[in-house]
Amino acid sequence: MIRVFIATLALICTIPAWAQDNPTVQRKGESLMLDWPDSEHWKVGSNQENEEIQMLELIPEKETLENWTEMGNMMSIKGAVGVPVDVAMNMMYDQARKVSSKAKLTFIEKDEKAEYPWILFTIETNGFDDGGAAESQLWYIVQGKSALYANFRAVKKATVSKAQKEKWIRFFKTAKVVNL
């Protein structure tokens, strides 16, 4: 969890520069909707919100935040608009490299011309500099009209398997930015 927090903190500290000087930024009115499959038996491990961010962590129903094998994470960074998706991807990778010099970034796909620009990529590592176990994440970042949505699915393995990658990409592509 500390690794997720570090990445989130980095985004919160860096991204407000894009939103800070924009008086037309909406603080409410949209959300990213993802339908986490019931067949995968997810439960909410943590749901935290403040004025700048909302973060939801999902884990399999028989696991805990301290001992998980797979995790889903959804973050809404409120007021962060106009952030190029490549910049968000590179910021996430830069933060990962601070805790794992072996972290590997792999770009998958993006659409910067979509109404809501998005990017898919993986960050994979076979271990952390502090001795922590392997962890790999497939990220889906979407630029909304009033927030930046950073989402990932993670496994405690050195790589995301091809089958998981294909499944997770299909899953993330079902996401919709909706007006509330």
Describe this entry's structure for a reader:
The structure is a single chain. Helix 1 crosses helix 3 (about 85-100). This protein has a single domain (about 1-20, about 35-180), classed as Protein Transport Mog1p, Chain A, CATH 3.40.1000. It is an alpha+beta fold. It has 4 helices and 9 strands, in the order H-H-E-E-E-E-H-E-E-E-E-H-E. The strands form 2 sheets. Strands 2-3-4-8-7-6-5 form a 7-stranded antiparallel beta sheet, sandwiched between helices.
Mean pLDDT: 86
Q: If strands are numbered along the chain, what order do they take across the biggest sheet?
A: 2-3-4-8-7-6-5
Q: How many β-strand runs?
A: 9
**Total separate domains:** 1
Q: Which descriptor suits the 3D outline?
A: globular
Give the C-alpha Rg.
15 Å
Q: Work out the helicity level.
A: 10-25%
